[in-house]
Specification:
Blueprint (H helix, E strand, L loop, with lengths): L15 H19 L3 E5 L4 H14 L3 E7 L7 H12 L3 E6 L1 H8 L5 H22 L3 E5 L4 H11 L21 E3 L7 H10 L4 H4 L19 H21 L1 H4 L2 E5 L5 E5 L2 E14 L7 E2 L4 H14 L3 E6 L13
Parallel strand pairs: 1-2, 1-4, 2-3, 4-5, 8-10
Antiparallel strand pairs: 6-8, 7-8, 8-9
Helix pairs in contact: 1-2, 1-7, 2-7, 4-5, 9-11
Bound molecules: xanthosine-5'-monophosphate.
């Protein structure tokens, strides 16, 4: 990550015309920096890496190689969307790696949240590095670094302690030291979104809610099992579908489902039915340092509860987390 300072003269990108100007300028800068060399990008499908991919595709086309690592902890249809948009629609060189088994085997039986995060972050780098070694003649590594990342790392350099270890591509092995391309390094998130739309990325991708690097891994609490992970993925998709339908998706900053490693007794088809509870979390925040709870209307909660308990195998209750941050963090792990 570069150590940059955003100049006061930098005009805030608030509309398509300003975004187009930024894109034109960056295309020139990237072409000059990269020449005819090859660039590698870890494309997670998040807003920042997606916008970098679209920008680099415009600047250098087939000199860009994107690697999408599916760690098996993505939300429903997320990896499929990355393939559809970047490979099929934008004709980008995309290496899709289904590493589900690698990740889930390493995580089997691991219940400590920080250990889980570390395993996921480390294995992500391992898988990405394996793919990078297979490609020949790569000179640059592109990253979706944005200005708040730079500010955050400056704060950490001053000795402030992080609450959780976040995962990011960084710390690649010694034999893979590339020069960096970070075209969004001076932008704030809202500007990245405006640039993304100007580059033709779908609204849903550009306005996607934040999703942690370790993905559903930190929402499938304790030791992850495939059956509970599958239930979490389905329940989360139902929550998102209902939020889309009632307009909450546009209003709420982050919303998702958590499934703890606990079963309770229930009843289904007149028989005892032991199942997990699905916990709904919906929060609003400006900077993720503190957060308040969205008051979801009862009718919506009932609809979500009915759908999750009837459509998702293994879930027999739905709970609603009313805890702000502090004292709860946004994620449960
Ligand atoms: P917490 O749980 O610490 O989360 O209140 C604050 C915000 O950060 C997101 N989050 C992550 N984002 N990598 C990320 O890129 C991570 O490892 C990670 N862990 C948490 C979380 O979803 C929330 O928006």
């Amino acid at each position: 990550m570069q150590n940059l300072v955003r100049p006061e003269s930098f005009v805030r990108i608030t509309n398509e015309a300003l975004a187009n100007e930024f894109i034109k300028e960056q295309v020139k800068v990237i072409k000059e920096q990269v020449g005819n060399k090859k660039v590698l990008l870890a494309l997670s499908g998040g807003v920042d890496s997606s916008v970098v991919a679209a920008l680099l595709a415009k600047a250098i086309g087939k000199q860009l190689y994107c690697v999408h690592v599916n760690h098996g902890l993505m939300r429903k249809n997320e990896s499929e969307n990355v393939v559809e948009i970047f490979e099929k629609q934008m004709d980008v060189n995309l290496i899709y790696v289904d590493a589900t088994d690698r990740f889930l085997n390493l995580l089997a039986g691991v219940s400590d949240p920080e250990s889980k995060r570390k395993i996921i972050g480390k294995e992500f780098i391992n898988v990405f590095a394996d793919e990078a070694r297979k490609l020949e003649g790569i000179s640059y590594l592109a990253q979706g670094t944005i200005y708040p990342d730079i500010l955050e790392s400056q704060k950490q350099a001053e000795g402030k302690k992080a609450v959780k270890s976040h995962h990011n591509v960084g710390g690649l092995p010694e034999d893979l030291q590339f020069e960096l391309v970070e075209p969004l390094a001076l932008l704030f998130k809202d500007e990245v979104r405006v640039v993304g739309e100007a580059l033709g990325l779908p609204h849903a991708m550009v306005y996607r809610q934040p999703f942690p690097g370790p993905g559903l891994g930190v929402r499938c609490l304790g030791a992850i099992t495939r059956d509970r992970l599958a239930a979490l993925r389905e329940a989360d998709a139902i929550l998102r579908d209902e939020f889309d339908k009632c307009g909450l998706a546009e209003k709420v900053w982050q919303y998702f489902v958590i499934i703890p490693d606990v079963k309770s007794v229930g009843v289904k088809d007149e028989s005892r039915y032991e199942g997990w509870p699905a916990i709904i979390r919906a929060v609003n925040t400006k900077d993720a340092m503190s957060a308040t709870i969205e008051e979801i209307p009862y009718a919506v909660l009932h609809k979500i509860t009915n759908r999750i308990t009837s459509e998702v195998e293994g879930i027999n209750r739905v709970l609603y987390d009313l805890t702000p941050k502090p004292t709860g963090t946004i994620e449960w792990e």
